Amino acid sequence: MIVITQPNATEVQINRIVARVRELGLDAQISRGASRVIIGVIGPEALLREKPIATMPGVEAIVPVLKPYRLASLDSRAPSSVAVGHVRVGGNEEVVLISGPCSVESTEQILSIAKIVKNAGAKILRGGAFKPRTSPYSFQGLREEGLRFLAEARAETGLPVITEIMDARDLPVIERYADCLQIGTRNMQNFSLLKEIGRSRLPVLLKRGFSATLNEFIMSAEYILNEGNMNVLLCERGIRTFETATRYTLDLSAVPLLKAKTHLPVIVDPTHALGVRELVPQMSLAAVAAGADALMIEVHDSPELAKSDGDQALTPDIFADLVPRLRAVAAAIGRAL
Ligand code: PEP
Ligand code: MN
After folding, report:
1. For residues 23 and 45, what is the distance between their CA atoms, to the nearest angstrom?
2. Distance 5 CA to ligand 1 centre (A)
3. Distance of CA 154 to CAs 78, 107, 115, Å?
4. CA of 185 to the centre of ligand 1 (A)
5. Buried-most residue among 33, 175, 213, 288 (CB within 10 A)?
6. For 143, what's the count of Cα atoms within 13 Å in the CB-facing half-sphere?
7. What is the distance in A from the centroid of ligand 2 to the CA of 199?
8. CA gap 131, 134 in Å, rounded
9. Is the pLDDT of residue 274 over 90?
10. For the chain, how long is the longest CA-to-CA vector?
11. Which ligand gives the minimal distance to the CA of 133?
12. For residue 64, what pLDDT band results from cuts at 50, 70 and 90?
């Protein structure tokens, strides 16, 4: 960290700042300019939390040198890949398609959709058994029964399964059935839940909070990594802006930015960002062009009967028509799909 003093800082003030830095066991290197003194602080910055120096007389600004996210940072390791069952996401040239219905509704429904998306090119099945609904009167999910149906669909199709966890108390039962945990947008800053799943053996698909900055998003991933679970996938799913034409605003700039800041694979979920079926194909193509390592797209064989998110689910035909076009965009940027 670098401490910049005010132009009128006195020698006594500067000496006090340097003394405080050294008291904490940190090294202080002093450079004198024409009007200011710059103090380079060397050593673990965390020590400064005990005795902050930002508010000391004579200090104008503090410039951190290290990123607040140590484990997620691209400085700490090369781009990583995460295994979801037998499928690897990130770190290589392949773009992975994750698909399925919003909610698991019955064994027939999940199996039928699993087969449809697999035939079209999906490599991972995603379905919700515990649903975070805005209204308590809306369908809340089939819970353990839904997990069982997901596991049956995996046995039948070979597709690994991702499902959402909303409450740490459900972790043991979800771990029995799923290959990957999803943290929904509304729980991105549920820090106690993040710590619990940080101790799980399962990988985690972490969705961006719809009001979260990228730094806040990465800090939430850091909570999971810090508990020892290094298998985190970051998912951009739209943020809330003043625009009302779409359900949220898909922030595609998040893809190259997250890839420049972190080593974690980046997924785009255009379905929840747009909320309108017709817009999903184009923005899916754009997401691949932006460098996404995977796409998560909701598909339903009878969207008009879906228990959640029917308006934004692609029909099997639209999905099947989209996949070759996604493949063409991936090829154009030197990736497979
Ligand atoms: C979902 O994936 O079905 C979902 C509810 O997503 P989000 O948390 O992004 O709203
Ligand atoms: Mn949904």
Report:
1. 13
2. 47
3. 31, 11, 10
4. 6
5. 288
6. 5
7. 26
8. 10
9. yes
10. 78
11. 1
12. confident
- Report the nearest atom of ligand 1 relative to the CA of 182: 2
CA distances (Å), 126 to each of 31, 68, 118, 236, 256, in order? 56, 32, 12, 16, 24
For 192-215, write each residue's pLDDT tens digit. 999 999 999 999 999 999 999 999
Instruction: Return the number of other C-beta atoms located less than 10 Å from residue 108's C-beta.
Output: 10
Which residue CA neighbors atom 4 of ligand 1 most closely?
184
Mutate to test the pocket of ligand 1, among 249, 269, 300 (most ligand atoms within 8 A of CB): 269
Residues of the chain with CATH 3.20.20.70: 81-332
Q: How far is the CA of 174 from the centre of ligand 1 (A)?
A: 17
Which residues form ligand 1's pocket by a CB distance below 6 Å? Answer: 102, 128, 132, 184-185, 207, 237, 272
Going by pLDDT thresholds of 50, 70 and 90, the confidence category of residue 52 is: confident
Cα–Cα separations (whole angstroms), residue 16 to 10, 21, 56, 176: 10, 9, 9, 58
> How far, CA to CA in Å, does 170 sit from each of 7, 138, 144, 193, 195?
57, 20, 9, 11, 14
Q: Which residues pair with 181 in a beta bridge?
A: 163, 204
pLDDT at 279 over 80: yes
For the domain 2-63, what is the CATH superfamily, name and number? Answer: Phospho-2-dehydro-3-deoxyheptonate aldolase; domain 1 (3.30.70.1140)
Distance, CA of 159 to chain centre: 22
Residue identified by tokens 């985190």 is 232
Q: What is the CA radius of gyration of the chain?
A: 24
Which part of the chain has CATH 3.30.70.1140?
A: 2-63
**Residue nearest atom 6 in ligand 1 by C-alpha distance:** 184
The structure tokens 């369908």 sit at 139
Q: Which two tokens stand for residue 204?
A: 């985690």
**In CATH terms, is domain 81-332 a member of 3.20.20.70?**
yes
**Cβ(237)–Cβ(295) below 8 Å:** no
At what angle are helices 280-290 and 254-261 packed, to 10 degrees?
A: 30
Ligand 1 atom showing the smallest separation from residue 207 Cα: 9
| Ligand 2 centroid distance, CA of 124 (Å) | 16
Which ligand 1 atom sits nearest the alpha carbon of residue 296? Answer: 2
